[in-house]
Specification:
Length: 132
């Protein structure tokens, strides 16, 4: 396989993945991973109950899918009822938000640390406790 053939094959796979993900610049909504090779679609309310998906990297997808394992089992109806569908979507969203909360806390603490460093550079002889 020539180098040009490899590049064409890579580009073809990339375009197919971008089409599947529904975006030309996809990102994991939880961690920000942008490598198209690492991104997947996650069914928020589980595939049997809802078609709504979000883009997640493989690591975040594994965490979100694992959380769904604790959800109630289907009610064994030939077709899930609307209330059952809504319940599973709400549980999926709750799982999603729990994962997002972890990331928000990390990012919030990072920004506060960055602000402390910025203040220290702007006012080298002042401590934060003196200003408050």
């Amino acid at each position: 396989m020539t180098n040009q053939t490899k590049q064409l094959d890579l580009e073809k796979r990339k375009q197919k993945a971008l089409q599947r993900l529904g975006s030309t610049k996809p990102l994991c909504v939880l961690c920000g991973e942008a490598d198209w090779r690492c991104l997947e679609l996650h069914h928020i309310g589980q595939e049997d109950f809802d078609d709504t998906t979000g883009i997640l990297c493989r690591n975040c997808h594994r965490k979100a899918s694992d959380a769904q394992m604790a959800h109630p089992k289907p009610l064994n109806l030939s077709e899930p009822q609307m209330l059952e569908r809504i319940g599973h979507v709400l549980l999926g969203l709750a799982d999603f938000f729990e994962l997002l909360i972890e990331k928000l806390r990390v990012f919030g603490n990072y920004l506060i640390g960055f602000a402390e460093q910025y203040i220290a550079l702007k006012q080298p002889n002042t401590t934060l406790t003196e200003e408050n």
